[in-house]
């Protein structure tokens, strides 16, 4: 009787351990999947904010340009006023875009980390299930290290994507700034 209880207790512990291990991996997968979706929503919100910033900024630039072209009182000697106004507006806009891009890039990086970790956990779960099914349900127990899923980070080359994005946005802003300043000078002085 004692032998049966020992054997039954040992088998019960192994089954619980297997189920616990699968449950732990499934929890990791679920967590990283939810985090991936959360970061995607955050990225989308920040992109909407960035588009709203661009819309407001271009409306402002259009109003400044319209005011310059319609004002009979502004002359070449007054061109410092719109140039100063445009410079301040561009500086404020530059800081706003920089902050928004920083948030977007941070969320994209975190999302990529969660996706990589999710992929690793899914692959590990699939591998363990295949190994257990190949062993025809004989469960010898698995070591803790087989269930460890370390947080994954993308390679250094991944950051090049962010640098290109920054360069594109700020190159565009510098181009718009140069266009607006030269337009102001042309409108007021020629």
Summarize this structure briefly.
This protein is an all-alpha fold and 190 residues long.
SSE layout:
Blueprint: H1 2-70, H2 80-134, H3 159-189
Helices and strands, in order, run as HHH
Oligomer: single chain
Overall SS class: mainly alpha
Shape: rod-shaped
Euclidean distance between termini CA atoms: 107 Å
Q: Which sheet architecture does the biggest sheet show?
A: none
Overall mean confidence score, pLDDT: 85
Task: Please mark out the parts with pLDDT under 50 across 5 or more consecutive residues, or reply none.
Answer: 4-16
Approximate helicity band: over 70%
Task: Note the beta-strand portion.
Answer: under 5%
* Beta-strand segment tally: 0
What value does the Rg take, in angstroms? 30 Å
- Total helix count? 3
Describe this structure in words.
Helices cover about 80% and strands about 0% of the residues. With about 190 residues, the protein is mainly α. The chain has helices at about 1-70, 80-135, 160-190. It is rod-shaped, with a radius of gyration of 30 Å. Helix 1 (about 1-70) packs antiparallel against helix 2.
